[in-house]
Amino acid sequence: MNERAAGAPSRRGFLGTVAAAALITRTGIAAAAPASEAYDFVIAGAGHNSLVTAAYLAKAGFSILVLEGRPTIGGGCKTAEPCLPGFREDMCSSVHGLLMSNPLIRKDELGLLAQGLEYIYPDPVMHIPFPDGRSLTMWQDVERTRAEYAKFSERDARTFVRMLDELGEFRRARAAGKPPSGLWRRRMAMSGYDLVHALFEDDHVRAFHLAVGRFSSVPGGDPGTGMQAYTAIAHQLGGRPIPKGGSGMLSVALGRVIEAHGGVILTSKPVGRLVIEGGRCTGVECLDGSRYRAKRAVVSTIHIRHLVKMAPAELWGADFLAGVDLWQPEHAMFAFHYATSAPLAYPLAGGGEIAPAESTILPYPARILRHSYDDAVGEVVLKDMPLQILCSSVADPSRAPAGHHTLKIIGNLPYGLKEGPEHWDRIKKPVADAILDYVRGFAPGFSREAILAEFLMSPLDIERMNPAMWRGSVHAGRYGPAQMDDMRPVPGWADYRMPIPGLYQTGACTAPGGSITGKPGRNAAIAILADEGMRLDDVIRRG
Ligand SMILES: Cc1cc2nc3c(=O)[nH]c(=O)nc-3n(C[C@H](O)[C@H](O)[C@H](O)COP(=O)(O)OP(=O)(O)OC[C@H]3O[C@@H](n4cnc5c(N)ncnc54)[C@H](O)[C@@H]3O)c2cc1C
Prior knowledge:
Elements: H1 18-24, E1 38-44, H2 48-59, E2 64-67, E3 79-80, E4 89-90, H3 103-106, E5 119-120, E6 126-129, E7 135-138, H4 142-150, H5 154-175, H6 182-189, H7 192-199, H8 203-213, H9 231-238, E8 242-243, H10 249-260, E9 264-266, E10 271-277, E11 280-286, E12 291-300, H11 304-307, H12 313-316, H13 318-325, E13 333-340, E14 346-347, E15 353-354, E16 358-361, H14 371-377, E17 387-390, E18 405-412, H15 424-442, E19 451-457, H16 459-465, E20 503-505, H17 519-531, H18 536-541
Parallel strand pairs: 1-2, 1-12, 2-9, 12-20
Antiparallel strand pairs: 3-4, 5-8, 6-7, 10-11, 11-12, 13-18, 13-19, 14-15, 16-17, 17-18
Helix pairs in contact: 2-10, 2-17, 4-5, 5-9, 7-8
The structure holds flavin-adenine dinucleotide (FAD).
């Protein structure tokens, strides 16, 4: 897949802005970063997490070199124009809700808001249409959402309001350092499917909660997914913020901070090997043969499955390697992008229509339960499949030419097809067409003629675009008791320090995991600064 086809923009800049261009045109060929020069820290990979780490370290006064394998920075936090010029599609993430509690944004520790980062909170927040013509819309206004639940069940509407209080209280207790109560421990240990059934009486309401719960690529049938029952509640409390201009604006702002502190970012620089001297990681070697020396350490966001192949096995230790060997992929994702001449609008039962920035589809609750089986047998089953649909241009008109829109349809389908993953190259187009028709079944006014251009990414394409999304795992690997918290990436190695001295790891393979949270990135910065005898708070206070 060439760079253009992979969704990577031309070297003109991935948002088409002058400032963004300044950031990304410093390719490995063009930029002045002699391989002989040593930096305090060499950062391998430029997803938002490693950019966060790099930005804190740069602010702390260290010299920084970031090496990104692709032509643009950002990884899963990237906006490009793969369909048509002027249509800014979020190649992966769109919604940054989970980032908002991070002091990086909450306290704007790095001054990102002054670097062009601005958030839009779409209203309606979310919409779900059902096959019987009914629908449920979540609005920013709680009373308005409550009324939507009440269309299906007064009892469920009361439960919705009660859950808002419960989640608020739960969060305050956690923020105060209190452990979860027994009741919450039980809720969390349950499956989302079971808890949603215990909480609500109406299947539409249950389907809505399970549909948004599964955006983490974990279907709510698994034990330990109970919090998925509360995901919609979190959306009501916090909204679904999207950066103005595209998800990639976060990466652009981080890149600007790094460069403002003298850091250097080189793109098209895939790292192929760790340089080891005297048992210590002292740099990296790129696939083009260039070597970069790190005076203090290397920070990687390379997928842990790939990273272990980049240094001799004996340096990792048998336990660590065995732990990595057991690392499991998650339900793989596809992303189909469209440039359109109309927004995706759904009819409303009472008349009229609604064009939300975000919608979801799940015709009935039990459909959520078949993901694991389909994955195991490697079959693509499209009937009644759950989907997440973004039409961000509705809330942010800067993303498309006037009167036009961007549309992204995402969902989970097996990476390991029974015919092999490469079979995706043969079936991608018919699968995308079938899914588009399925969506249009809920939005009959949205004609095929409204599609001006498309850019289709199968689970295999997602991995090709970003090797950190191993086997289409957009959060790097499965969420679940075996790969969470102190188990991520490997039990005993969850503090961002790797078994090889001079090597740190951040990104979605590390705690607390994937999504746009910036938490692995900030946590890694805290660990690295501590090893340098510094505190992140002091670095921030320094201004
Ligand atoms: C279609 C889709 C939709 C999504 N929607 C959302 C959403 O709305 N909200 C949300 O919170 N999350 C969403 N996600 C998940 C989210 O994008 C990821 O979990 C997140 O981007 C992970 O960030 P990261 O910084 O850990 O790593 P990544 O973003 O994966 O970045 C890793 C970087 O390292 C680079 N790299 C890898 N190997 C090498 C190497 N050897 N040498 C040099 N560079 C290398 C990669 O090219 C990449 O740039 C979505 C993902 C996808 C695919």
